[in-house]
Amino acid sequence: MTAAPTSVSVFGPGLMGGSLLMALRQRAPDIKLGVWARRTAVVDELKLRKLADFGGTDAAAVAADSQMIVLCLPVEHLEKVAAEIKDVLPRNAWVTDVGSVKKSVVETLEKLFGRGGCFVGSHPMCGSEEAGLQAARTDLYQGALCVITPTSHSNPQAVRAVSALWRTVGARTIEMEPAEHDRAAAIVSHVPHVAAALLVELVRAEKPSFRELCAGGFRDTTRIASGSPDLWAGILSSNRAEVLAALRKLTAAATRIEGALQSNDTDALRAFLAEAAQHRFEILSRS
Amino acid sequence: MTAAPTSVSVFGPGLMGGSLLMALRQRAPDIKLGVWARRTAVVDELKLRKLADFGGTDAAAVAADSQMIVLCLPVEHLEKVAAEIKDVLPRNAWVTDVGSVKKSVVETLEKLFGRGGCFVGSHPMCGSEEAGLQAARTDLYQGALCVITPTSHSNPQAVRAVSALWRTVGARTIEMEPAEHDRAAAIVSHVPHVAAALLVELVRAEKPSFRELCAGGFRDTTRIASGSPDLWAGILSSNRAEVLAALRKLTAAATRIEGALQSNDTDALRAFLAEAAQHRFEILSRS
User: Fold this and answer.
1) Which CATH number fits the domain that encloses residue A203?
2) Contacts of A264 in chain B (CB under 8 A)
3) Is B217–A248 a contact, with Cβ atoms under 8 angstroms apart?
4) Residues B215 and B239 in one domain
5) Is the CB of B210 less than 8 angstroms away from the CB of A188?
C-alpha cells in the first residue's frame, strides 16, 4: 500500500487538471488540493468552487506546499514551469505530468528534477476535442487508461504514488517505457488525428455542395480534428519521428488499396475491409 | 402536391428497408406496405409485426401489386431483381433504390426499366456500421439527407413521388446528377471508410500491447470500419474511379504533412490543424 499524499497540486487547471481536482475532491476528500494557474481569477474561481484549498500564480510557492504535483500543461510549457519549482519541492514530493508525448518530456524533466527520481511521466488517455476548465468533469478519468512511464532513474516510491493517484480517480494504469509509449501513441492517437484533419481538408477542397452530404460517419471519423490546434501541433512536433514513421506506413498501405481499386480487385478490397472490421472488434473488445 | 402512393414495397428489408417500413407504418398508416425478401421467414416476420400487408419471395408478384418500389439491396444485386420485375410494373408505378453509388446504378436501371423514366435513384445518407433488419428503427431517416439523382430521362412525376416518399419519413432531399453524387460520396463517405480501415490495420500490424492504448478517439475515428465488408467492397468497386481519385488526393496531402514533420515546421502543422478544426466546424454547422 502507498499512503495517499496529504496534498496534491494541479499546475494548469484545464480539461485534464480541472477534472483531476473535481475527481479528487469527490473521491479523496481528505487530500488538500492546490492549484497553480497563470491568472488569479482562475485560482479564485477554483477556491470558490471548493476545488482548491490553496494556490496562486507563483509556481514555487504552490509547489513548496505540495506532496504531489501534477503538471497539466501543454508539453512545450512543461520545462519552464518545472524549472521554477525544482528547487523548492518538499522532501518526498513527487511530480508527474499528463502530456501526450513522453520520451522528450521524461528526458527533460528527469534531468531537471534530478535528485532521487521524483518525476515520473503519466499519460491519462482521456483527452477529447474539448478543452479548458469549462469542459472539466468529475468522471473524466473513470475507466480511462493511464500509461505510467517510469525509467531506471525513477524512485520506486514515486512510481507507486503516481500510479495510486490515477487509480484513486478511477483510471486503470499500465507501465510502458517512454519511447514505447510514443511509438504506440503515434499509431493509436497522433496519426488518427492527422488522418481526421486530412479528411476534413479533402472535403474543404471540393465544391461547397459536397458538404451537404457530410453525415454521421463523417462526423465521427473527423471528431478528433476539432481538437486544439496549438496543443496538437505541440504533440505532433514533440513526437515527430514516430508520427512520421507511422504516417508513412499509413500512406504505403493506402497506396496498396489504390492498386486494388485500379485493378478492380474486389476480393482484395473485401479481404481488407473484412480484416479491418474483425480487427477493430478484437482491438476494442480487449478491455 | 404529389398524391401519396397507395402501396409501397420494400425489396430487401435490412437496416434501410426495415427502417423504411417502420417509418411509413407510423407516419403514413393509409399506405399499404409490401415486402420482397429471399426468405419466407422474413416476409412472415414482417407480416406478423404488422410492417407488411402483402409480400413474398416472388419479386414479380410483389411488384405487380406496388405503386412504389424501393430496392434496398446491395448495388451488385440490383440488376438481377430489377430484371425480374421490369415487365410487370403497374402503370405509373415508380421505382427507386437506396444504393451508395449512383452513376452505374442509374445507367443500368434506367436502361433496364426504360419506358417513361419510372426509375429514379436515391441515396438516403443514414447508413451505419450496423446492418440487418434487427438494426432497423423507426427514426433512421428522421433528419437525414437523401440525395435524389434524376437525369434527363426521368419522368418528373417519378422524381416528385420519390422525393415525397423520403420526406414522408422525415428526410431532407436534395437533387444531384448521378456522377456528381458519386464524386461527392467518394470524398465524404467512401474514402473516410477506407481511411478508418487503414487506421485499424495500422494498429493491428503493431505489438498487441499497443492495442491497450486505443481510447475514445480511436473508437470514433474507426467506427465506420465496422461496416459490412461485402456491402462496402461493392460500394468501393462500383465507385472505384472516384474513390481512387479521392484517395490519391488524400495520400498526396499526407505526403505534404510528412514534409512538415520532417522539417519540424510546427507553424505549418499548426496552420493545417487550425484550418481543419475550423473547416470541420463550418462543414458540420451548415445544416
Assistant:
1) 1.10.3660.10
2) 237, 240
3) no
4) yes
5) yes
Chain B, nearest residue to A258 by Cα: B244
For residues A33 and A3, what is the distance between their CA atoms, to the nearest angstrom?
Answer: 16
Residue B164 belongs to some domain of the structure: yes
Q: Are strands B145-149 and B121-124 parallel, antiparallel or unpaired?
A: antiparallel
Which are the contacts of B29, defined by CB distance < 8 A and separation ≥ 6? none
Please say whether the beta carbons of A239 and B250 come within 8 A.
no
Boundary-marking domain end, from A176, A197, A228: A176
Chain A, chain B: beta-carbon pairs less than 8 Å apart: 301
Q: Which residues of A touch B275 (CB under 8 A)?
A: 201, 204
Facing residue for B189 by CB, picked from A192, A218, A244: A218
**In a shared domain, residues A33 and A160:** yes
Residue A87 sits in the same domain as residue A53: yes
pLDDT tens for chain B, 287 residues: list them: 466 789 999 999 999 999 999 999 999 999 999 999 999 999 999 999 999 999 999 999 999 999 999 999 988 899 999 999 999 999 999 999 999 999 999 999 999 998 689 999 999 998 777 789 999 999 999 999 999 999 999 999 999 999 999 999 999 999 999 999 999 999 999 999 999 999 999 999 999 999 989 988 899 999 999 999 998 999 999 999 999 999 999 999 999 999 999 999 999 999 999 999 999 999 998 65
Closest CA to A113 of A143, A153, A61: A153
Chain B environment of A248 (Cβ under 8 Å): 258
Mark which of A116, A147, A176 sits at the end of a domain. Answer: A176
Asked if A172 and A54 sit in the same domain, the reply is yes
Q: Do B192 and A218 touch (CB under 8 A)?
A: yes
Alpha-carbon distance of B287 to B285, in angstroms, equals 6
Q: Which residues pair with B149 in a beta bridge?
A: B121
A80 lies in a domain?
A: yes
Q: Are A46 and A72 in contact (CB under 8 A)?
A: no
DSSP secondary structure letter of residue B119: B
Long-range contacts of B42-47 (CB under 8 A, 24+ apart): B42/B13, B42/B133, B45/B133, B46/B13, B46/B18, B46/B21
Maximum Cα–Cα distance across chain B: 67
Q: Are B192 and B164 in contact (CB under 8 A)?
A: no
- Which SS3 state, helix, strand or coil, does residue B190 take? helix
* Cβ-Cβ contacts under 8 Å, A194 against chain B: 254, 257
CA distance B206 to A176: 15
Backbone CA torsion sign across B121, B177, B196, A250: positive
Are the beta carbons of A192 and B217 separated by less than 8 Å? yes
**Of residues A89, A102, A74, A79, the one with CA closest to residue A34:** A89
Sign of the alpha-carbon torsion through B170, B176, B179, B182: negative
B129 plus B29 within the same structural domain: yes
Domain that holds residue A105: 7-176
**B114 and B90 in one domain?**
yes
Interface test with A, best of B137, B214, B263, B278 (most A CBs within 10 A): B214
Record: contact B206-A213, CB cut-off 8 A: no
